[in-house]
Amino acid sequence: MKLRRPNPFYFAISKDELHRRINNLPRWARAYIHELHSTVPSAGDVQTMADLRDQVRGLSRLVVELQGELKRKSGRAKKSSR
Prior knowledge:
82 residues, mainly alpha
């Protein structure tokens, strides 16, 4: 029989119990947890930022490609007008 490893990110306690445990910590630990909670972005925010970064890279490549195409076309127009 294969044993399954428990998910380390799964909390088997309620939010109220978690809050009670955090409130029982020393002040410095509570302050650290509060700072982490308020400054570290959520997983959804991180995913959104990664998606936006990829979109910016793709759009930057497209701009470079379109600028090159525009230069080629304007060079052809100048040659044909001579």
